[in-house]
UniProtKB/TrEMBL annotation:
Protein name, per record: UDP-N-acetylglucosamine 1-carboxyvinyltransferase
EC number: 2.5.1.7
Pathway where this protein functions: Cell wall biogenesis; peptidoglycan biosynthesis
GO-annotated cellular components: cytoplasm
Sorted UniProt keywords: Cell cycle, Cell division, Cell shape, Cell wall biogenesis/degradation, Cytoplasm, Peptidoglycan synthesis, Transferase
Length: 199
């Protein structure tokens, strides 16, 4: 077993550059396809997941450049196209494309994502959340197809499954609660995903 041995007793000095968080990066890259203009990310870690996500973007005619720690994504000429299953299966974070594709094309066809040395990661909660929002979900031969109507998602009630799905985006929930603004009220006729998070 490998060991990391640190010998102390010396005063520390100098500078350290802190890189961007991997989990945040792999979530933000798929979200970039929802933009109408080029998107720029800095402090992006140079990891295999980022390059695989760039391959997935390329399959949809989305250009991206990665120089230093800066990643620029231009989705202005995006087209709906089959995603490369090899790249999808190589990283578990590829399921983030489900919501992004639904927001852009009202349809998402994605192979089940792969895993890492921890093992495959289930996406059951994400599928349940899309169903709770009124999406049609079907699974065939390792591929999941999700469709929404032309008006987007419809949500009859608040779902804790949905809350868990968008938990990374609900850090300001406590602030909304203080302001007396509920996360979701009654049953709106036309509810888009982003309207769940009015902050």
């Amino acid at each position: 077993m490998s060991k990391l041995i640190v010998n102390g007793g010396n005063r520390l000095s100098g500078e350290v550059s802190v890189g961007g968080a991997k989990n945040s990066t792999v979530a933000l890259i798929p979200a970039a396809i929802l933009a109408d203009t080029p998107v720029r990310f800095d402090s992006v870690p140079d990891i295999l997941d980022v390059h695989n996500l760039m391959l997935i973007l390329k399959s949809m005619n989305v250009t991206s450049t990665f120089k230093g720690d800066v990643l620029t994504i231009d989705p202005t000429n995006i087209v709906e196209a089959p995603l490369p299953s090899k790249a999808i299966k190589s990283l578990r974070a590829s399921y983030y494309f489900m919501g992004a594709l639904l927001g852009r094309f009202q349809r998402a066809v994605v192979s089940f994502p792969g895993g890492d040395n921890i093992g495959p990661r289930p996406i059951d909660q994400h599928i349940k959340a899309f169903k709770a929002l009124g999406a049609e979900v079907s699974e065939t031969d390792g591929t999941v197809t999700i469709k929404t109507g032309p008006e987007g998602f419809m949500a009859p009630r608040f779902s804790w499954i949905l809350f868990r799905l968008v938990r990374p985006l609900t850090r300001s929930w406590h602030r909304l609660k203080r302001l007396g603004q509920p996360l979701l009220v009654t049953r709106p006729r036309n509810l888009k995903l982003l309207t769940l998070l009015p902050f």
